[in-house]
Amino acid sequence: MIGVVVLVVSLILQIVAAVRVVFYVRLSEHVKVWMLLGFALLLMAVRRLRTLTVVLSQGNVALIDLPAELLALAISLLLVVAAFLLQRVFAHWRECRDNLRDEVAQRQHSELVLRDREADLLGLLNSINDAVVATDVDGRI
Question: How many CB atoms lie within 10 A of CB 39?
Answer without folding.
Answer: 13
